[in-house]
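User: My instructor asked us to take a sequence, write out its structure as tokens, and then describe one feature of it. I'm not sure where to start. Here is the sequence I was given:
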Amino acid sequence: MTIERFAQPASIAGVALLIMVGAASAGPITYTTNAPGTGFSGGSSLTLNNSLGAAATLTFIPGINIATGVPSNVNFGNFTLVCSTCSTQGLGAGSFFNPFTFDMVLTDVTNSATGTFVGTSSGGTVFSDVSQITVNWAPLQLGPGANNATSGNFGPAIFSTTVFTGIVAPNSGAVPGQSTIQGFVDSTDLADPGNVPEPLTLALVGGSLIGIGLLRHKRFLRQ
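Assistant: Let's start with the prediction itself. The structure tokens for your sequence are:
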């Protein structure tokens, strides 16, 4: 009777808190970067041609319906630089790109919201082994709520990107010429300690309550 009065409530409370730990984790978020408006210089073209020298192209490959846990590092898409007739910088046969902008329209499918990361570049010369092109992003964050949303509301979702994306040379990278637009997805449910208790804290409290119940059990047996 006494054991049940002390040990069982403590154990139940501990288990309940451990269940809350799982509930505190945010669900997956699905996003895409192939929405209308994505393209170079404010247009819808996903391929930019060079302006001088050997023929070269810079193409954006969007991410489509990517589901990811929160928080996590993500890939918003890839730029692929191709210049099949470019030589090395040492030989001097390269290609040149004028300054350009690139709009990457991100759709938060989960929360029915969209926003735009705008990339600007001063262009530069490209060789088979060298690329001077860098794309600088603004804003660096979309969400939470309606922050930087062009439509809808991001809710608790936060999408952020790196300050810049360096475009690798045509013969560089795991996939030749491909550069990843890196980013991060988080949620205010997890980012704001005031909204949801930290999982580790809840786990410790839950374990402590279970321990209290067992301790009272042992004391009862000794008596």
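For the description part of your assignment, you could build on this observation: The longest strand covers residues 72-82. Try explaining in your own words what that tells you about the chain.
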